């Protein structure tokens, strides 16, 4: 029985001939091979098939902060930003992108199973500058308060403050080829020799560790602590965190951004191959949640350090005689 085809339509940025692709200006959502300002090809991040970065309206990626396994970006009220998705692999991929839980193409609640995304060529990139209004224009992304955010005005303020990307690889026709021989090494050369220590060590420790002593009957029941992961989980500094308004994304001014529709058949129709999430908020709110957003500057030394501190002292050039005998 032949398996039915599951082709979907994606969006690919319009390409022009020659050097004109670089002269389109920042208003074009391009999909081309990434190049730096110096004219040299940008090396893709090591080990990442698809990478995500949040860029300012003037270009340049905004700094990211790692906190408890999640990635955060600090924004400013009224500031414009763009989303850059890079394909570091040698095959086409489709990227379904959401902002504040809203799909950037359809403006509906994000659902990567049924919604289409941007198609990226091998080693190409796409600059997403706003919520898509048509094949030629978008509504710019701008940081704003929750009440004025696009998701908040549609009645879903609980999803404000997050950017998500679901990546699907393209379905390739099967080829009869010989399976490669298994590698000799048991692990990649870049992995530490203790890479699998946690899995086996934790299992052996769980077997040898004694059972915890039962709590006394008269002891008060401890409150269960909720996990502190990414997103907007409750924190100890929730009271301080609520003093400053949270940031959302505004449905901003109309900006020219040309794309065209292409066909794309997903390898796995309802399961992404890569999932990426970035949370954002103001620097004050991130700082209140315990995320380090301020650079650390070490204090200056009280005096200038000396390369040879003992050079001014006199020393014998040869071994001196021992002290006099005491007994």
TrEMBL record:
Residues 171-252, 296-327 are annotated as: Disordered. It comes from the Bacteria. Keywords: Signal. The keyword Mitochondrion does not apply. Residues 1-23 form the signal peptide. Residues 218-227 have a biased composition (Low complexity). PROSITE patterns: PROKAR_LIPOPROTEIN. This is Outer membrane lipoprotein. The lineage of its organism: Bacteria, Pseudomonadati, Myxococcota, Polyangia, Nannocystales.
């Amino acid at each position: 029985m032949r398996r039915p085809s599951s082709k979907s339509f994606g969006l690919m940025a319009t390409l022009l001939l020659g050097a004109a692709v670089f002269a389109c200006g920042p208003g074009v959502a391009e999909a081309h091979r990434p190049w730096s300002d110096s004219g040299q090809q940008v090396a893709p991040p090591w080990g990442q098939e698809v990478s995500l970065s949040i860029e300012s309206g003037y270009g340049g990626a905004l700094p990211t902060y790692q906190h408890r396994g999640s990635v955060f970006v600090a924004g400013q009220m009224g500031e414009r930003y763009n989303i850059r998705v890079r394909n570091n692999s040698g095959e086409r991929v489709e990227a379904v992108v959401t902002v504040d839980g809203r799909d950037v193409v359809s403006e509906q609640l994000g659902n990567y199973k049924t919604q289409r995304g941007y198609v990226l060529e091998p080693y190409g990139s796409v600059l997403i500058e706003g919520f898509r209004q048509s094949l030629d224009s978008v509504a710019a992304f701008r940081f704003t308060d929750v009440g004025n955010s696009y998701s908040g005005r549609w009645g879903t303020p609980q999803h404000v403050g997050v950017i998500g990307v679901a990546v699907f690889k393209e379905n390739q026709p099967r080829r009869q080829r010989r399976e490669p021989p298994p590698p000799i090494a048991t692990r990649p050369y870049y992995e530490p020799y203790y890479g699998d220590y946690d899995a086996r060590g934790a299992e052996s420790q769980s077997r040898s560790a004694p059972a915890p002593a039962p709590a006394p009957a008269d002891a008060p029941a401890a409150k269960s602590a909720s996990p502190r992961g990414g997103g907007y989980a409750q924190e100890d500094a929730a009271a301080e965190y609520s003093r400053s308004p949270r940031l959302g994304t505004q449905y901003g001014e109309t900006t020219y951004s040309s794309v065209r529709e292409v066909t794309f058949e997903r390898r796995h129709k309802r399961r992404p191959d890569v999932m990426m999430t970035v949370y954002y908020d103001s620097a004050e709110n991130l700082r209140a949640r315990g995320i380090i957003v301020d650079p650390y500057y070490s204090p200056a030394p009280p005096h200038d350090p000396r390369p040879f501190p003992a050079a001014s002292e006199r020393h014998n050039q040869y071994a001196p005689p021992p002290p006099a005998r005491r007994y």
